[in-house]
Design brief:
By secondary structure, the protein is α+β, with helices and mostly antiparallel strands. It has 2 domains: about 250 residues, Conserved hypothetical protein from pyrococcus furiosus pfu- 392566-001, ParB domain (Alpha-Beta Complex); about 120 residues, 2-Layer Sandwich (Conserved hypothetical protein from pyrococcus furiosus pfu- 392566-001, domain 2). About 30% of the residues lie in helices and about 25% in strands. The chain is built from 11 helices and 21 strands. The strands form 3 sheets. Strands 1, 2, 3, 4, 5, 6, 7, 8, 9, 10, 11, 12 and 21 form a 13-stranded mixed beta sheet that branches. A hairpin with a 6-residue loop joins strand 3 and strand 4. Helix 3 crosses helix 4 and helix 4 crosses helix 7. The longest helix is centred in the middle third of the chain and has 14 residues. It is globular, with a radius of gyration of 21 Å. The protein starts with a strand and ends with a strand.
Length: about 400
Amino acid sequence: MTVVHPIARAWITTGGTGAQNYDEFADDAEITAIIEANPHSALGIEMPHRAPESLGRSFLEALPDAVARLAEAKADGSYTPAEQVVVLYRITAPGEESAYGLFAMVDTDQISTRADEPGLVIRNEDVFIAKVRERVALAESLGHLLSPVLLLQTGRGEQLHEALAAATEAAGAPAATDTDQAGRTHAIWLVGPGRQQEELTSLAGGGELVVADGNHRSLAAQTGGLSRFLAVVTTPRSVAIQPYNRLVSELTTSGDELVERLRAAGAEVSPIAGPVEVPATGGTVHLRLAGRGYAVRLPHVAGGRLENLDHALVERLLLRDALGLDPGDKRITYVGGDYPASWLTGEVDSGRAELAVLIAPVTVDDFVAVNLAREKMPRKSTWFTPKARGGLVVAELPR
């Protein structure tokens, strides 16, 4: 018995629909620009209020536009239907080891968010409920899921990796390919009913699955009452954890006062003479204020490993206590590893933001330990790469 299943009715891209997931952007204007340059991008469906012709409408007001765009994409041949399939997935780039995954459906009732809640799918991060509500509304309006939840197979990851590598090698020409913003090539192959499909779904569901990306999408599946959600099951060898930084558009106090408040909380603050970069190791975060940079050695607080993760301390000591900002405050932008340190510091130096907070990546050991304890990671703390591409495989929901 496995918690991973074929997609009953899938719509497979014929090219040109692939897109970054909706939550990978630091600036909404980037979404609009991508949709304008490629009207077939799945972003126009996932983020309908950011499409050029829908600007000015709210997300809910623009949902009919999303429905119309998906219907048009299916009608014009941008997608082709397939029944009872799983989809092999490979991501390649020069100088990088190939990453592998399997598009499939996963049982929603297997999601576990705490130690006393049974289930093989571990969701490990706090979420913003407003985003969850948007994903629920989108799924209800479309009757389809376009962006997968990225799940990390922890029990049989090495076996799954070898099986996926062998399957893609023997599969011939891919059904479709897509190139992302970093130059990586995303390729997919369909696997219909039969022994190979059964072996792959058994391996993919053969151990605890950790949500590496898509905490909001997985909770939306629960909130929306979906029996299964669209996922890419990947392997530990296929992913890496990159920095997940913060940008604050407007401070609630002066930079000098912020520094003094951090020192009063027990932090050691020292100036940085050169460029402000992501710290090489944890325990210290780097700040960029107008015309100056600081290294902040974070104090140890009461609690265990989770409470003393850099991202948790930044949320608690810097954003909440020193600045009085709730994690969901619109003045905070969560900036993933696709954006270099120079981009964040450039936003401050240009006056478009007042503070950049650069944080070392969460270590794999910390990530695994928190998950095995069924505790929640701080919001927006793990930026896994490479990201699964949205809009390549679309799952039609049962009516």
